[in-house]
Amino acid sequence: MSNRQSKGNRQSEGSPRPTGNRRQVIPLDLGPDSYDITVSYGLRERLGDELSSWNNGQRWVVLSQPQILQHYQGVVDGLQNSGINLGVIEVPGDESAKNIAVAEKVWSEMVEMGCDRSSILLALGGGVVGDLGGFVAATYMRGITIIQVPTTLLAMIDSAIGGKTAVNLAAGKNLVGAIHQPGAVIIDPGFLATLPRRNVVSSLAEAVKYGFIRDRSIFDIFESRFEQLLELRDQALLTEIIVKSCRIKSRIVANDQFENGERRLLNYGHTIGHAFETLRDYGGLYHGEAVLFGMKCANYISHKKGLLSSQQYLSAQAVLDRFPLPELGQLSPQQVLDVVQHDKKNVNGKLNFILLEGIGNAVVSTDVSSDDIVDSLSVVNR
Ligand SMILES: NC(=O)c1ccc[n+]([C@@H]2O[C@H](COP(=O)([O-])OP(=O)(O)OC[C@H]3O[C@@H](n4cnc5c(N)ncnc54)[C@H](O)[C@@H]3O)[C@@H](O)[C@H]2O)c1
Prior knowledge:
The chain is of the alpha/beta class. It has helices at residues 47-50, 66-81, 100-112, 127-139, 153-159, 197-213, 216-224, 226-231, 235-255, 270-279, 287-304, 310-321, 333-341, 370-376; strands at 24-28, 35-39, 59-64, 85-90, 120-125, 145-150, 164-169, 172-179, 184-187, 353-356, 362-365. 42% of the residues lie in helices and 16% in strands. Helix 6 (197-213) crosses helix 9 (235-255), helix 10 (270-279) crosses helix 13 (333-341) and helix 11 (287-304) packs across helix 14 (370-376). The chain starts with 23 loop residues before the first strand and ends in a 6-residue tail after the last helix.
């Protein structure tokens, strides 16, 4: 049976420029696991209606965090008022929630709440709630439906789509998890109003990434309307970026759900970026900021190898240089190499590095040497 119960007002690819509050639906085609990503300002106020086709009286659970419920208890109340029989489980408001002990607590609370195999878990939060919720839903009674309602930009354009779920181990992030596709992803960009600005801006890194790897028109928006974008006040523009990003992510996931090929392109900027994030001990540097630094390095290597023309290289770096970024500080090249070589995305010790063969066209390369990586640090170690 298809996951997709509500087909909504489907809008085709290449549709005209969206306005903020027009409901847009992006289908993610995965055969029986297909689902829709719905985007519109104001969806949170009518979430009960939006989800009515999923509700058949079963027990639901909303998974969220104190920082989110402090602003959006009304969303939960609205769901209850629309006749959804739900309980709420709060988990810690930081990365520590992505932990097997927290997952166990959530499983147990779900049993106490009377959740069974027909229950639905609604993840109301950012990537942490989405990843943990996805993992719990993938495993509770061998798998129940999850609905993702992302409240951060990173979750809206990236983590809520594609079914990657995870908890962390002391040995590293995201080391235990499953691929478990959601039944639906409901995006209301209005949630971003309460998110700290640095969090939203750093997540735009993932949007510009889509421009670099697949869609030149996203890059063009960053190039021509950077200030408006960073002000985060233009609803139509923010919606346009979110919708375009979701389209690319959904197309890539549809082509390569299990990351054997095209999905690896999403790691553009992440290989060296992840090393920066690790060496700055998470916390000091936001994920998106680390990826922005990582993209600068990847562009340097792409240019050095003659894949990216000088003109495109300069425009690419000029856009990345406009992002407000903290100081990276001096990093030891050897330490960066050590982290890159232990990246869990390496297969059989082989580094799959994502380079650009022009803006809008990323490729996988197995031809990036330690020297290339060390050289590329010159664009960020200054
Ligand atoms: N599954 C995937 O494909 C994937 C992809 C990328 C990242 N991730 C994961 O995503 C996580 C990071 O997610 P994130 O950047 O969304 O951060 P997050 O989920 O940690 O949220 C950041 C903080 O903002 C709060 N918050 C969330 N929405 C809010 C809102 N609207 N208003 C006020 N506060 C709000 C949260 O409670 C939290 O304290 C990492 O664990 C990362 O590994 C997963």
